[in-house]
Each structure stands twice: as structure tokens, then as C-alpha cells.
Amino acid sequence: MVKRLLALALLLASPLANALPDENQGITEFDNYRVHYSVIPSTFLEKKVAREYDLTRSRSVGLLNVAVHRTSGDDAPKPITAQIKGTFTNEARQTKELSFRRVQEGDAVYYLAQFQYRQGELLIFELEPAPYGDSTTLPVRFSRELYDDE
Predict the structure, then answer these.
(1) CB contact at 8 A, 35 and 66
(2) Could you give the CA distance from residue 35 to residue 85 in angstroms, rounded to a whole number?
């Protein structure tokens, strides 16, 4: 099970996150929260993992992974459940809604969304994670260009 988590979420709160180029991942920090995000071409997923999680592998489909952690003092950040809303805008200034699916394995909680893109196109992502039980919204905005190396 841990192997599947690391393979799928090679993206965020795993040791494999360091294997991703910095431009594919990011962290935005707030007072008591940290939002982790990664964007990759879906072809970076192993075929077996894509099948297991019912994810599309295609040169025109990207994968966005978002996780929210609560931070407190010197304790290690803890993954928490949140409601994730988001959009992305392409170079033609078309804005599309992202549909997130919650995945939980052990203590890890993360949210996945797939989207269509063109190679080398600049995409602007706007996310609004809202931790459950808190009225706080954690706005995150970032841009990425995706290239399929397969």
C-alpha cells in the first residue's frame, strides 16, 4: 500500500517529492497551514498505478495533486481533510473548473484532479483549499508549463 501511495503521490509529502524538478511542485505557507501542490503530465505515472486509481494516462492530460497540512509549533505538519476548489486558465484565456477526488491512505490525505493541456502551454492554476472545521480559505496561485518526456 505504501508503494502505491509513493508511486501515485510521488508528488507531495513523500520522500520521492525530492525527485521531482522544483518547477513541478510547490508549497505555500499560511499561519497554521501549509498547502503542497504538484503538477505533472499523466504519462509520468506508471500504467499500473494509473489503472489502480482510474487515472487517464495521455500526452494531453495533466495531473494536479494537492495536500493541506496543519502546522503547529515544533510538531511535524499533519495532513488534514479539506475542501478543494480550483480552476486553471490556458493561454487562450479559457478558464476551466478542476474536479478533485479525495484519496486517503494511512495518514496521508491528498486531492487529485486531471485536466487537458497542450505541450508547452502556460497554465495558471488558482486553488482555494478550505480546511474542514475552519472558516479559513487558503488561496494559492501558480503557473506551470508541462512537457511530456515520454
Answers:
(1) yes
(2) 13
| DSSP SS3 for 50 | helix
DSSP codes of every residue in 69-93? EE--TTSPPEEE-EEEEEEEE-TT-
Place of cell 506508471: 46
Q: Write the pLDDT tens digit of every residue in 62-105.
A: 999 999 999 987 778 899 999 999 999 999 999 999 999 999 98
Distance (Å) of CA 15 to CA 2, 69, 113, 145? 12, 16, 22, 24
- The percent of residues in the chain predicted with pLDDT above 70, rounded, is 83
Nearest to 146, CA basis, from 7, 25, 51:
25
Considering the entire predicted model, what is its pTM? 0.83
Alpha-carbon Rg for the chain in angstroms: 15
Nearest to 54 by CA among 117, 118, 101: 101
Residue 102 identity: R
